[in-house]
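Researcher: Please generate the 3D structure of the following complex. Treat every line as part of one assembly.
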Amino acid sequence: DTEVTQTPKHLVMGMTNKKSLKCEQHMGHRAMYWYKQKAKKPPELMFVYSYEKLSINESVPSRFSPECPNSSLLNLHLHALQPEDSALYLCASSQSPGLAGHEQFFGPGTRLTVL
Amino acid sequence: GENVEQHPSTLSVQEGDSAVIKCTYSDSASNYFPWYKQELGKGPQLIIDIRSNVGEKKDQRIAVTLNKTAKHFSLHITETQPEDSAVYFCAACSLTGNQFYFGTGTSLTVIP
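Model: Done. Output below.
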């Protein structure tokens, strides 16, 4: 299984809602990533988990809260988002953190719209 | 930190022609350079990568070249097909970190 799955595919939420994005991989990868991608732009790194511990937080606002319950799952909890947070949220995983040459496998993304 | 520049931002070619996309990077510590293809509504998918100990790598119609001295690398697609139409991103990564630095993307259109 060489797939990263993400749910939901689409999400529409109001600024006062609380929602969560989910990501799952069963490749035995020990690094997992959250990216934000705006239209016609490259992915922007948000968080990196290495061995289920948060290793990189790219100065992301606290309204985004990541969680890694186990080595296969990654969540992104959303609360009090702003319309400018509307974007494609991508999850990725790689075999081993901190080593170059390990491909990052991306999921299909969750298209988030904040009203 | 690393800075990756990518050109052109848009590229249109006739079916069967070749397409070339170029990237430059700034950090000499970068030693892994993947290329991703992103189709509309999908996540990026790795199509080819190269490490700094290799100057060229080929996989069927796709090839990547790397010039470490000049700090640039290029993607070459030969005999382009309409299904090659997508946005392509280059990236650079260093041995000391697991963070990819992406280029700004190239929107490739192959005209049948």
